[in-house]
Design brief:
transmembrane helix; transmembrane; 2 helices; membrane; 2 strands
Length: 95
Amino acid sequence: MTEERITETEGPAGETHTTHTIITDREEQRRSGGGSGWMILMVIVIVAVAGFFLFSNMSNSEVAKDNAVAEAANQVGDAAQNVGDAVKDAADPAK
């Protein structure tokens, strides 16, 4: 609650002085955050989104690495099969 008090005093020479006093309860001052709470919330949301994308990309790179290793293993297996066929053909003179 805010209260305004106006006091008028008159001096001996006839001059008038007016004083304005505004009284504010402390509860109202505590409730007004000034927007800093919203700023902190926005920073937290931005950090959370950035963390999500960072970990998402890390898992995608792990999958790509695993796929590359599997493909290389398949190519080694195919090459070994071709070598085995070549040795078999070289050992069989009748062909």
